[in-house]
Each structure stands twice: as C-alpha cells, then as structure tokens.
C-alpha cells in the first residue's frame, strides 16, 4: 500500500487523523496498523492499550507522560499501558495496536544509535529495535545500488519505507509504502537510490 495515495480519515480526536493499513476486528478495538498524524497543538484523551502498542515516530515530536519523543524514536508499550498522548509541533507516526501482549516497555532514540554493517550483505546495515518470542524488529539501511540476496520469509515479513525506496519481484516501493509478505514468501530487494526502512519479521506464522 502506498500511503501517499490514501486519504486521511478522522479519529476519536478532531485533531488526530489516520490512514489504516490493516484492521482486524472492531474499528476502535481491533488489531490495527496505521499511519497517524497529530496536528500542531493536538492531544488525545487518556486511554489504555490492551495487547500493547508499537510506535515509530516518522516526523515531528510525539509526547506523553514519559516525555517528548522526537522523529526516529521507537516505542513499545506493554499490555495495560495507559497514556494521554499529545504533540506541540505536530507529528506523524507509524502505529501498531494490539500486537504485543506480554512485552516490556521499550524506548529507543534511533538517532543516537550507530548503524551496524550487515555481516553478509554489502551496502546494508541495521539498527536492532526489538527481539521477542514472536517478532524481530529493526531498521534497515541500503546504500544506493545495494542488492540483498534472495530473502526467505518462513514466518513472514513487513516493511515500511522511511527514506528512499526499493524494488523487488513484486513491485516498487517509495517513501510511505507499506508491504507485507506472507509466510513462505521470498524476494530479492534492491535499492536504486538508497533505502531506510522499518522491518518486522517472524510475526505472521
């Protein structure tokens, strides 16, 4: 899905809008993956997060009771976590709800992390974000022209493009593209002009 081609939709807060990429269950109580936009000065009422919440701050500054979270921050909120989020300058988030039961809280400012060169792929480097029983999450960077040897995905994979873009046998993906590969899929990604992406693996079996 190319999120730049989707219309913003209203949320329970008049200053917060979203683009739903996946929804399983009731509209305000199901498992959902979305891009969410907070207008400057916006806020959301206090609410809990059954089965956890995952956030990557794409742009701006996202805030809650734990402080201010600038672009590049990765947040994983556990089962039962409650907050009243807000944003003074406005922000754009990549959000996943009800997909992390039993996890511990995670907060990582990825702008303070160094890229780790991939051990076997030239022009590729990563920043690890989370490794749990049911999922592994990292940022992936590919240099312009880099090609990743064919990737086997026995438990599936999900990619959200943050910068640049990539191509594979199934299509071309630009900034804001979200792609999900089912268990058993395979692909050979290549980055013509470079890539930075959120990658989640092993959670779809």
Provide a quick synopsis of the model.
It is globular, with a radius of gyration of 17 Å. The strands form 7 sheets. Strands 1, 2, 3, 6, 7, 8, 11 and 12 form an 8-stranded antiparallel sheet that branches. The protein has a 6-stranded antiparallel sheet with strand order 13-14-15-24-18-21, with no helix packed on it. The mean pLDDT is 91.
Can you give a write-up of this model?
The model has no long low-confidence stretch (mean pLDDT 91). The chain starts with 8 loop residues before the first strand and ends with a strand. With 205 residues, it is mainly β. The strands form seven sheets. Strands 1, 2, 3, 6, 7, 8, 11 and 12 form an eight-stranded antiparallel sheet that branches. A six-stranded antiparallel sheet has the order 13-14-15-24-18-21, with no helix packed on it. It has a two-stranded antiparallel sheet with strand order 4-10. It is 0% helix and 55% strand.
């Amino acid at each position: 899905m190319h999120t730049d081609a989707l219309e913003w939709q209203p949320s329970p807060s008049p200053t917060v809008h979203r683009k739903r990429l996946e929804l399983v269950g009731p509209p305000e109580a199901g498992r959902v993956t979305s891009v969410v936009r907070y207008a400057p000065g916006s806020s959301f009422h206090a609410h809990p997060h059954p089965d956890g919440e995952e956030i990557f701050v794409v742009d701006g500054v996202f805030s809650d009771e734990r402080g201010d979270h600038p672009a590049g921050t990765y947040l994983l909120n556990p089962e039962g976590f409650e907050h009243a989020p807000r944003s003074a300058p406005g922000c754009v988030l990549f959000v996943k709800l009800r997909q992390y039961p039993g996890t511990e809280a995670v907060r990582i400012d990825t702008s303070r992390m160094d890229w780790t060169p991939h051990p076997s792929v030239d022009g590729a480097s990563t920043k690890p974000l989370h490794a749990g029983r049911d999922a592994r999450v990292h940022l992936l960077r590919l240099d312009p022209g880099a090609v990743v040897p064919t990737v086997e995905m026995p438990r599936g994979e999900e990619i959200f493009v943050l910068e640049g873009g990539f191509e594979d046998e199934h299509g071309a993906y630009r900034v804001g593209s979200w792609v999900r590969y089912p268990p058993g899929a395979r692909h050979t990604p290549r980055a013509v002009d470079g890539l930075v992406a959120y990658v989640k693996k092993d959670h779809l079996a």
